[in-house]
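Human
Can I borrow your eye for a moment on a structure tokenisation matter? Give me a protein, with the fold worked out from its sequence. Write it directly below this note and I will take it from there.

Assistant
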Amino acid sequence: MSAHFRGFVCALASVLFGGVTIGAGFPIQFRTERAGFVSLNIYRSDGTLVRPLLSVQRFPAGVHKVVWDGEGAEPGEYFWRGLFHEGVGLKLRGWAAHGGDLPWEMPDGTGTWGGTTGVPSAVAADEKRVYLGWSRAGAGNSIVACDLEGRAQWTHRRTKGESECASLAVDEGVVYVLGGREGDSMGDAMYKLSAKDGKPVPWPNGAFDLKITALWPADSTTKPDRADAMAVRHGHIYLTFTNAEFIAVLEAKTGDYLQTVVGAPPGMIDVVATQSDLPDAPGKLVDADFAVISLGGGVLGKVLFAHDPVWVLTSELTPMEREVNITALSVIGDAGKFHRHEAFVGLGAPFHQVQARPLLDTEGYVWSVGRPGGRPLLGPWVPESLRAIRSVALDASGRLWVAESDAFPQRISVWDTTGKQGTLVREFFGPATGLGGAINPLDPDLMFGQGCEWRLDRKTGRASCLGVVTREFLTMARYAVGENGRAYLVVREQREARFSVNIFERVGDGDYHLRARIFDADKNGEEVTSTDGATQTMIWSDENGDGLSQRDEAHAAPGVVAIRVEATAQDLTLQAERSGKEAAYWLLRVKSWTACGAPRYEFAEPHRAPEVGPASADGRLILGSVATDAGGLLSCREVATGRELWRRAVTDGEHREALPLCSAHLDDPIRNVWLVKVKGGTWHLVNEDGFDVAQFLEGDAVKVAYPARALPGADMTRAKMPDSDVQTMAQAVDGKLYLQAGESAYWNLEVTGLDKVKALPGGKIVIPLEGRAPARP
């Protein structure tokens, strides 16, 4: 465009807009009745996108004037279109798998719960608090200190690397942690925290950690590198070493080694302070520690230690029932307000119970909790049952806290200990792993996450567990609706180096039946989980409803393909892709259904898709991400023809990596819409016309804003964008959109304001040949 022509355009703009020069280019005028947000695009006459001019830009009410510079556009006819809304945002409905009051982390560290890469591993209590430990925290915290109602008071994790906790104890205002350091195994070191605020308490040499290997003299014949369990009482630390078959006694303040007690292989241990007379001085009371130790095979050892110097006054072995596996111990002694002179004993398989046993008669029990046999591994939730009991502690109100080291779900339960049978007081779940979360489109109060189904409480926002669907490691989950009107859960499961896709039908609360499975196999049709050996992809659909794969129920796809669960449509359409020399992408639609409700897929006549990415909800379009020298671009294509309708940067002027996640279909003027995550930026709703309909969640920590309280209805529009890419979007039967997001919790968010999105009238723009004036908008 010549300087003469650009000057002419500038003069024309001055005339059109009352003598105000707004710069060289093609003027566009529009009106907003109210203050709100405008997105505006320029299109060619064939409807393909030239460029986004405005992306969710705020304007006051009134008449507005913007200019398209026309750079790079050929002479010809163009037109502009726009969208307006008063604000599209996110409203909190609730969350699952997080026991704290705030299911997100605030800048001051509050709001975090336990460790996202571990399981509940330890619990201890004193007069004011309960201290909870997680086996590993790649994110989140390995230690959470709560009041007696479970409200977090402080949290702790190591400053770098993974933070671990094998055992917890509290004595004289100090919390002792048997945990690991970065790169080491759990239980290889001890460190101390202030019970009041969680601040580190150094050892006398100034070090934070006391390494287990540092305890042994250079000439020691036995040098275990990790301890198995720990108890601290009356200024002494007791460590058990099961394989080495001894107990080490240390001075709690200094970590100095005091004594070794050799005997049967010790396991769990707890100690209470008491007084006892000495064998050589009857009637003279001295301070002593009474220890109860699990010795394997259902044997409880009882040892009375003198204090100064440390030595064993007496010991006794008490066998319990046969085939008992003692997994947790907590001893209540003279100073106990409740259950004095009793031991709470956690039993593993096959019992899965906690029992209170008198210290003087541990062969019988006076109280128990947990149904015999424990909680089922899969199926509807049984809250009154226990599983994988790892640690127990009685709080100052007489309630028993139980850490259950199960990942599906992670649970810490609290029990009333009055009477002979315990009753459940509350459950604390989580934290979430951030993987495999989804919202049910038939009922948005139902969620999936951590292998379980959850139901939101609309008043509190908290979710209760309904059941365990799967115990496999999942990297993605989405709900879909079958032609029978039932909800189906599609998950991507990782087994070693391979991924498979499982499709479950929801038949009741927490009750899901496996209906179909797609997996890599060898030439004989046997599943392959290693990097090598796969020659075909098998598709299994359950014909007889038994949930088991028979050979005549499966058929092979041509070659090895990968199924994209993140691209699953809510009608159970899947997307498959094949890499290598014969790279291809298909949309896999359900061809038919078995009698028990399993979908049948057929590869024989694939519907070829032109791009990697989620298909639109109506199946016409695919939105993919294209890498260029300048960065990432979004590309929208027609499925039937492969024709590219538009290509654009998701953020104007910045070619950031963008990942399309899910799709939905809304009323005019939006129609097909995709949820797009921009690396280091925000989430975008992009529609089939290339409009940025809305932006929410923040990648910039400075711009993150959370509500003061986590209550249903709270504004989450500027909450932190999760680091993970596996968040999902669901469109409910009422047409509303819901997002599952979050890192240490599975958030349930409703997209608000979409019903008020309006189209701007639009207009025509003509770029003339050289020397001709542009058409008036």
